[in-house]
Amino acid sequence: MDGIHDMGGMEGFGRVQPELNEPTFHADWERRVLAIFSGVLTLTGRNMDEFRHAIERIPPARYLTSSYYERWLLAAETVLVERAIITGEELKSLAQPEHISVALPAVSPKAAPAKARLRARFKVGDRVQVRNIHPSGHTRAPRYVRGKTGVVRRVHGIYVFPDTNAHRAGENRQHVYLVEFSARALWGLSDRGRLMIDLWEDYLEPVDRSKTAIAKRNSVAARRKSRAKKTRTALPAGARQPKTASKSSVSKTHRQEKRRRR
User: Fold this and answer.
1) Per the CATH hierarchy, to which homologous superfamily does domain 28-99 belong?
2) Cβ distance 199 to 145 under 8 Å?
3) What average pLDDT does the segment 183-207 reach?
4) In the chain, N or C terminus with fewer CB closer than 10 Å?
């Protein structure tokens, strides 16, 4: 789902200020939240995708004002209630109402096939485009790569598909690829930066060869050749295109000049 949690490429949040010598926990209650998290995973079948989706569904204003472990606690409460391990009334009796955040309801996708895809659709070196999707449920495809073109650098193997597993709609095991994108393709930057990201097969589609040919025709070198061609055709009738000295003629002239000096 698209939401405030998907901050990659977004602006307006200020610079990241790393904390020097940051401790693992800033307070004792954070240790207890980690223990609660472990217990929730044990009770619910260790479905990390479901837990991530609970974090995604925290109301935006609450999400932005919550710390890392506060989000974990809110997600744990959501999963416990949705799995009917505790009731909403029991939760309210255990915590102050203003500290409870009711998550947005989950939207389940269609059930996925149980059989894993053993054959990879893509190989190293393939150009792929990320599908421009906007699912209402969980996804691990960041918005900033959707619709962008990259190159497969590694085939990791077969893994559970988070988009269906988060909703207990089937594991839908499939290949995961390490895909490389240029900073220019993602954000229009002129530097040579590269970004590597793991993407599941269902997020990707092959790049149309005709589109690749069009991109090459629109490249800088192609545009220069086109301008040079237009310049030649625009000369007046009878006018000659100025000649450019070749390397051989330049070297010959240089040798002759050298002999004269001797």
Assistant:
1) Nitrile hydratase, beta subunit (1.10.472.20)
2) yes
3) 91
4) C
